[in-house]
Structure formats: structure tokens, C-alpha cells
Amino acid sequence: MLPDEIIAQLISEYQCRDQQIHNLAALYSSHLPSPPCLDVYGLTATGKSSILASFFQLSSISHTIINVRECITARHLLERIVAASVDALEEFHDEKLDRRSYARTENLSALCVHLGNLLEGRGKFVLVLDAVDKLREGGGTLIAALARLGETVPNLSLILSTTLPLTPSTLHSSSISFLHFPSYTRSQLLAILGANPPKIFLTPPSLETFPDYTPDLAAEDDAWLWNRFLTTVYDSLSKHTGRDLISFRSCAMKLWRPFVEPVVSGQFGTRDFSRLMVNRRHLFQLEDSVLDRILDPNTASTSSQTATSTASGLPEPATPSKQRQAKMTVHDLPYYTTHLLIAAYLASYNPSRTDVTYFMKHTDKRKNKRRAPSAASFSMSSKRTGSKVRKISRHLLTPSPFPLDRLFAIFRALLVDSVPQVADLYTQIATLTSMRLLVRAGGAGSNDALEMGGKWRVNFGWEYARALGRSVNLEVGEYLVGGVD
Amino acid sequence: MEHQRCYIYELPKTEERSPKRQRTNRYNAQAQLPERLQTYRELWAQQEERIQEQDTLEKADSAVQGKIVNFISASSSMPDERKSVIPTGLIVAGPSIASHGPFFERLGRSIKEDAGSAYVVLTSGECPNLKTLLKNLIKKATSRVDDDDEDDLDRPATSSKHGPKLLNYDLGHIQEWNKRNRVSSIVVALQDSEAFDAGLLVDMIDLFHSWLDRLPFVLLFGIATSAESFEDRLSGNSLRYLEGEKFDVTQSDDIIEKLFSATVASTHVRLRIGPNISRRMLDRQKDHVQNTQDFCDGLKYAYMSHFYASYPSLFLKEDIAFKDLSPDAFEAVRNLPSFRQWVEKKLEQGQAQEVRSLLNSNEYMFEQVMLHIKSSQQALSTLSHAAQVLSNTREALQMSPKVRLSSIWTRAASGELSNSPLLRETMLCIKKIPSDKLVLLLAAMQQLEGDYFSMDISLLQKEIDKLLQTNDTNAPLRTQHDVRNDNLRTTVVAQKVLLSKHKAALSEQDKAYSDLVGRFYDKLEAYFDSAFIDPRTLFLSEVLVYDLKSPHTEVFQPKPRFAIERALASPHDYLGCDCCTGVDGNEAALSATQPATAIVYQMYLESGTLINVSDLWSAFNAIAGDGDEENESKTMAIFQRALAELKYLGLVKPSRKKTDHITKIMWKGL
Ligand SMILES: Nc1ncnc2c1ncn2[C@@H]1O[C@H](COP(=O)(O)OP(=O)(O)OP(=O)(O)O)[C@@H](O)[C@H]1O
Ligand SMILES: [Mg+2]
């Protein structure tokens, strides 16, 4: 393909990247020399990988692209470079290479030797290392060394793609070219996504009832509504939450179906944008669409949502976090396991010196359950210190570690009947640890469960503890120092 | 010797028994052990079959498994337009971690069969980091034999003949394998996903996602807590790569219930566990662990103990003949409490002659035992069946609170059920039953009719059908006991309001219906009365029911900490020697004759968190030393060893807060 054709095709495929495509075409043409090393950088979803891939596929330059994300170790990367280069060269020159000599690439010098041998007497070869900054090990020196490969192997030109530009300090040299892929602006984002609108009607309205609603007309409506919709989504949600192309796209796609639902059901016409907006405004007030979830929240929670809204009478948009709190279902744990967890929570969040007040078995049961310190006690203390101390509610802090015996002591204090000292209690601690509800707090020997005097920490929050308590008729808040509002 | 990891210590066999045993050895507890073992095997095989054939476990989660398999085949048949997300199943398998393994194993079988996918289970133990995870994944998926983990030997030495080879953690292996096998999807199940490092999960998802265009991955996460908290652990980007459904696995208490009714409360069981053990086993499931396998193990152990410990259990052997038995067996039966009860009853009834022959003639005894094994078994089966009837009745009447069959059975087996509030309440409800519910109840009961429950339900059904046909109103028929047939009448007599109930005049149909319900009620009551006996009063109940608490609790609920604490705090309990009984009969007092560690431990119990070692030493010396300066160094050595032992047990550790102090880290009784 001629360079101009390539450019034209790429530009039509990737809008708003004209300059970068022109640059690439200028730098990498088959007969002009190319820079030994180029750093293509730009934030996520700016089209680096896709444009590089498309460009080299169209151009007739022998090349290979390696996704560094797939390389687990540095050695893995080196091996893959050699293997991929051999494959690419064989295919490009349509010949069989002697693979035996390239069997092992243990280190960088082996890589240099192999690449040198491979490319000797051949034309230009482009090696693209995509997302090279995502390499899991190897650190800066490996990248620096890779960047200099072009110096030792003359007909190799290397392209590294990164999120941030490689600094001269990591490269240990400044002789490297850069190509920036800037983030898209609002209008660019709207233009890119607006280019291929999804359908309003998944199944087109039957031709008998609407004979004049032709596919062309439908496509026009789709584009019209989609573009307006995109603007709204961007301004109300994506601007504040995720401005990159992928976040924006996923957010818009999540909202699209619910948004056009009244149109599909025939409540509004396709061009009734303002009325549709008013009707569907709650979609843009919720955060659901910008949160990534594994489970499709639409299918999972619609039933419960409608149930709550009808129950309370007003369809007030609950924030998802609130909704989540309500939904926080506690798995039915065995009776003592539940108490162990509650005890662990209390041990983590109560200072140990207050244990006597809270858990000593008094004759008067109510004495145990002290409420939050009253306002008077607060003002007193602040007067004494002379400054206003802002207290953070305890349950918002990180849990503090506690020894196992304290957990058991609180556990026994919580229960009315006595529990035999059976081994099952320890089994449960182990089970809870493997469920990561309890974790060993750091320190020496924290990996050894038998280490004496080891400390533990809870790994769940207040809501879960409260729900646990309610499942066994125990109000955890009453035992928590400082109380909870 | 050094090459072995552990050794079996066998007691040197002495020819003659210790004198103490010889004294009691007239009755040989080990008699006919092989026969008993064989009987046990027979009976347990039947139970095992029941557990398996019933397929209680598999049946219980076959619905979920079906859903998961459907999900997988649906996602693998998705159009190939570059799937952008990994299909993900969140399997909420509940907190009974021990049952996750078998669940995923069964799941794997059905996935391989039905969905035509490759299936790999990974556990957190075998995946400490990404590299090992991948190695394991590849090994399991491609069934590749891989002999060494060493980096240098990451590939076979022959590789130089073939050119570059993939490293053994390169997913390219799976790609090659997939080229040959062409599976529709590669299902990777993380059995205990909570225990995986969150960072590792993120890395793995990232990697799988970037391979998704070449390898059709499907992820399954086994979750013990809740899907929400699992989602919270993953960071935003990896959540974006996943999309799927949640599957709730049947909870283990439902499974236990099914197992219980199949193995204990069923009518075909020859040996039952008694109410005490069954209550213990059920309580343990409720309070501590939830593990179905544990339940089966408990049952099996009960069976083993029964046949091991009791000689008369031999009578459970199918078609046992008189000549197979030694006279000892009959002697053993004659010593059973239930035999005594039975005989005493016979004496009261003046059947002295029969009692005499029971005591004298083994042949006669054998006959009677065989007879009673049959009849008692029949009674026990009837009891179990009646429990089932009662449970189903309550279910059909939708009575609350819901009482599970296991607890009804346990109460019945301890003889508590006849005249219990539970039964009376149920019967009362039946008295007032309206016709629409009665129809349902009869239908439910009809399925239970059989050898152990015969009531001519179909006759009743016919009758009620006839009655209903003549009933032209839409309202169901009511009995005379139904409150809705009562009218409240208010009368003012001498300025006092009198409330009086009046039976509304019953219609003809209602009268006929009341009559019918009355008959039904009477029959049912008679049935329950005859069925809910106290099994312990049955002759030979010791043979047919195993209800000993002792070895069971020790085996399934050991108390290691308690045992150590007790041994140290009151060594006399274990040593049983005369010297340690304490001073002047006061057991709690410390004495020099106790082991040194025990002495130090008891002083340890009395002190606070920080213990001054030199104080401890002087206290110890006062008790264990003899006041002689010369022997002090010896006492010191003993003291130090005692302290070292406490440290070894994890009771104390050196303190950094104060010099010469140690910290107490274990409290007694926790
Ligand atoms: N100008 C554009 N026109 C159309 N689609 C685009 C454009 N830019 C990016 N995309 C789309 O955005 C998605 C993400 O692009 P790509 O993976 O190339 O980004 P990237 O810069 O490599 O991101 P990262 O740094 O995360 O690797 C792709 O699906 C791509 O098709
Ligand atoms: Mg990229």
C-alpha cells in the first residue's frame, strides 16, 4: 500500500490522530532511515497500541509487536523478543531460518548477539515493545539497555510505548525520539464516540405498522439522539469521573439502554430529547454507571430498587453506597464463628484498657453498655487541653492488632453461656483467616501461625460487623468505645 | 534411620499380661472382633451407599452446577467479535470451606462433560505468585509433565535442537495445546479466592485479559463471604475486565438435613445413632463448623465405636446362627440394662418360668433376641417414620416456627415427643383445619403411607371430595373447633358487659366435615401415641442404638488447651499419685512433689502481665528448695528448665518493657 493510502485509511479509522499518524508514516517508511529508538507515550486509551498495530500491519515493513504486559519476567521478555523476531523474519522473507542457534536467550548480551545475527544482511526491522513500562520486573536498567539496542544492532529500530515519557535519567542517554499521543479533549471524545452510534431499536419496528420508518431514517435518529446523549453523559458524569475514552465509552454504553427505554416502549418519540432527559434524569444522578462491577447492577438490583422505591413511596435516588450498605448481606456463619468475628472487631477497635469497663461481668448488665461519651465530657477535655480537638470516629480508623487471647476473652464475655475450650475454636480462627476476615498483623514470624504472641487484625468494616451482630441479636455498637452514630 | 520422616513406635509384645489386666480378663472384650468388623463393614457400606446413591451432595448442588455450566457454554458460544471482557462466575459457596474442594471437583466433572471446556482448579496454597500460578495452570490444563521448577532447567535440555522454546510459565503453551484440542473455553476456577493475594488476582486478570483474543478464558471465583466484599478487593481496572453472574450454592445446613434424613431418620437403617450423639453432631454443625463431610465422618466413627466396643452388637449381623455365637455373647446380653428392665417387667407380670429359661437357656435366649431385634427395629423405624410424618404435617400446615426434621427426630428418639407442646400444638392445628388445607395435608401424607404408616388416606380423600362437591359456596368447609365458627355475643346484664361465645349453628356440610376431621384426628393421634415411644425402654436398645458420648467428643471435639492447662494447674488429675494430692487434703496447695513446671505455672497464674523472674525464683525456691545453700544450684537448674518449658509452650515471652521480667501471654480458661 502506498504511504498516502495508509495515512488516509488510518485517519478515517482513528479520528483526531492525524498528526501522530503523519509522524509515524514519515518516520517509518520502507526506504528512508528510521530512528533507532522512539518512545511513543500518552495516557491510557489514547490509541497508542491500536494505531501502532494498524499502522505496521498496513505498511510493508518487517516488524514484530510484543505486548510486554504478557511477559512475566525479564527473561520471558527477552525470549519472546527473539522468538517473535524469528517468526516475523521467517514470514516476511518467506524462508526457513536455523532456529537452533536461537534456543536460549538468558540475558541482554545474548539478546544483542541473537538480534545481531538475525538481522545481519537484512533490511530494516521494527521491534515494537508495547507498554514497556508495565514490565513486572527488571526495573529501569533493562529499559535503558533495551533503548540502546538500536545502537548495537544497526538495522533495528525500536519503538517503546509508555504511559509517561521516558526520562533521560532512566534511559541514561538523551538520544531518543519521542512521539506524544495527547489525551483527547471533550470535543475529540465526543467526535470519536459519536462516529458509530448504537441502535435505539434492537429489533427494528415492523415495516407494516411503520412503513415510512426506513433503516436510513433510523440510523439518522440513532446518530442524533446518541450525540446529544453523549454530551449529557460527558458533562454530568464522565467529566468528573473518568475522562479517558474507555471509561467514557463504558459509562455511555451502560446508560444507553435504560436511557432509550421509554423511546423503545413508545412513550416518547425519537426526537423528544428534552422530555426524555427529564424522564430519565435519575440515570445521571446515580453513580452506578461509572462504577465498575462484575455483576450487572441492572439485572441484580432492579428488583430490589423498585421494591424499596415503592415501599418508601418516593423514588428518591439512593446513592449506591447507601444501597450497598442495605444490601450488605452477611452469610450465615455458625453461631460461635459469628461471635468470634464480633469479638475480633471489638478487639481491633476498642483500646484494651477499656475492656474492663465493657466486658467485666457486672451484676447490673446495663452498666457494661456505655454509650458514647456525652457532649459534656468532650467539652471538658477540650477545655483542659485548651485547643479544640477534632476526633475521628473510631470505626473509620484502621483496625489495630490484638493478641489472640484478648479475642477469646472478649468472645467469652459476649456469650452468656460458657463455651468449652474445644479445638473447634482454633479451627474457626484458621478458617476465618483463610477467608481473609481475620488477618495476621505484620511483624516477625507473622507467617507462622504457631508463633507465640502473634497479633491479628480484622479485615472488615463496621457495616459488616453490625450486620453480624444483628444476625445473633447483639448490638455491636453498644460495646464499641465512643459509640457509632 | 535418618532418611525416614516419621517412625511407628510399636510396643514390645510381652507374653504375659500385666497383673492388673489379668484380674479382669475373664470376659474378653475382643471376642469375635473380626465378625463384628465384618458386620460393621456391611452396615456402613449400606449407609455409604445411601449417602452416595441418594447422591445427596450432588443432587443438592446439581441445580447450581447446571446454571454454571449453562453460563459457561453461553459465554463460550458468544459471537467471536473480540470479547472485551472475561466471563466471570462468582460462586458464593458459603463459609464451609472444607466442602469447597469437593464442590469444585464435582463442578469440574460436569463442566468437562457438558460444556466441552477445559477446567482447571487453582487453590491459594499452590499459587504464591504469578509465575507459580501460571506454571500450575499450564501443567494442569495441558497435563504436561514437568519435572523441575528450577529456573535454569525451565525447559528440557534437548531444546537446543529445536530452537526457541516457551518458558514454562508462558501461556503460549496453552495456546499451542488449544490449537490441537480446540476447546470451547478454558475455565479457570480459583477455589478459595479470598485467600489469594489481591495483587496477584489483579495481575492474573490483567494477563488473562490481554490473552483473551487468543485464549477463551472463563473465570470462576469460589467465594466464602459475599460477592460484594470480593468485588471490593479488586481494583477498578480489573473489575472492568470482568463481567458475569453470581451463583449461590446450596448451604450446607440444608445438605446436612438431607443427609440426616437419609442416614439416621430413615426407616431402613439397622443401626442408629442416639439422640445425644445426634444432638451433639447437629449442634457442632450449627455452632462451629459447617461441613458435610464432618457429619459423615462422625456417623462413621459412631458405627465403628459401636461394633468395636460392644460385644452384643454382633447380633446385628444378618442371619446370624446360634452356632456362631459363644456363650459369652448371651452373658453380655444378660448384663444389658434393657434386659434387666425387660426381665423385671416380666417378673411383675408373673412370668417367672420364662425368665428362668431366659437366664438358663442360651437357645431360648437366642430366639428371643432374634425376635426382639426385629420388633425393636420395627418400633424404631415407626418412630422415625412418625417423625417424618410430623415434620411433613407441620410443613403442609405451614406452621411456624419451622422445626427441622433433624430436631424433631432427635426429640422423638429421646422420648420427649409424646405429649410435648410441639406435638400438641400440631394436633390442635389439625383439629381446626379448614377443608382446603386438609386436602393439601392429605396429599402430603399419602406419599408417606406405607408399612410404617397406614391410615387409609385415600378413603378420607374420597370422602372429602364428596363433601366438597356438595359444597356450593366458595369458602372452605370448617370444623366446629374453628374460631371463625364462634360468635361473640355481648349482653348487658346488671350493667356488666358479658362476653359469651356461642357456637354458630353449623351447616349440615360443616357437621359432616367436623365429623370427618374428628375421625382423622383420632386416628392420627393414636398413630403418634403408638409411634413416639421412648426407645430406651426397648429391649436391646443398646444394640440397636449407639448413644455413647465418650469417645465421640474426645475424637471430634478435643480440648488441647484445656488439657495442657489442667495438666499444669492440677497435675494430680493426670498423675494420680499419692504424693501430689496436696497438703492436708487441700488439692490446690502447691507442694514440692509436683513437677517443677506445674509449680511455676501455678505461680504464673497468680501473677499479673509482667512477671519478675527473680521474685518467681524466690517463690519457687521456697517451695521446691530444701533450704540448703548447696542444693540451690540444682533447684535453680530445675527452675530454669521449668521456665524454658513454659516458654516452649508459648505461655511466656521475654519482655522488652522491663529488665528481668517476662510477659504473660496466655490466660487460663480461654
Ligand atoms: N482516535 C480513536 N478513534 C477510534 N478509536 C480509538 C481512538 N483512540 C483510541 N481508540 C480506541 O480506544 C481503545 C484503547 O486504545 P489503545 O489500547 O490503543 O490505547 P493505549 O494508548 O494503548 O492505552 P494503554 O496505554 O492503556 O495501553 C481501543 O479500543 C481503540 O480502538
Ligand atoms: Mg496499549
From TrEMBL, chain A:
Tree of life domain: Eukaryota
Gene3D superfamilies: P-loop containing nucleotide triphosphate hydrolases
Ranges of Low complexity composition bias in the record: 299-312
The entry's keywords: ATP-binding, DNA replication, Nucleotide-binding, Nucleus
Keyword field contains ATP-binding: yes
Subcellular location: Nucleus
Classification via SUPFAM superfamilies: P-loop containing nucleoside triphosphate hydrolases (SSF52540)
GO molecular function: DNA replication origin binding
Residue span of region Disordered: 298-326
Residue ranges of domain ORC5 lid in the record: 226-285
UniProt KW Ribosomal protein keyword: no
Domain Origin recognition complex subunit 5 C-terminal per the UniProt entry, residue ranges: 333-480
Pfam families cross-referenced by the UniProt entry: AAA_16, ORC5_C, ORC5_lid
GO cellular component: nuclear origin of replication recognition complex
Biological process according to GO: DNA replication initiation
Record-annotated Orc1-like AAA ATPase domain positions: 15-159
InterPro entries on file: AAA_16, ORC5, ORC5_C, ORC5_lid, P-loop_NTPase
Family listed: Belongs to the ORC5 family.
Protein name as annotated: Orc1-like AAA ATPase domain-containing protein
UniProtKB/TrEMBL annotation, chain B:
UniProt domain Origin recognition complex subunit 3 N-terminal: residue ranges: 13-310
Top-level taxonomic group: Eukaryota
Gene Ontology CC, one term: nuclear origin of replication recognition complex
GO molecular function, a single term: DNA replication origin binding
UniProt similarity note: Belongs to the ORC3 family.
Predominant localisation class: nucleus
Entry's Gene Ontology BP terms: DNA replication initiation
Domain Origin recognition complex subunit 3 winged helix C-terminal: start-end pairs: 561-633
Official protein name in the record: Origin recognition complex subunit
Places the protein is found: Nucleus
Species this protein is from: Cucurbitaria berberidis CBS 394.84
Keywords: DNA replication, DNA-binding, Nucleus
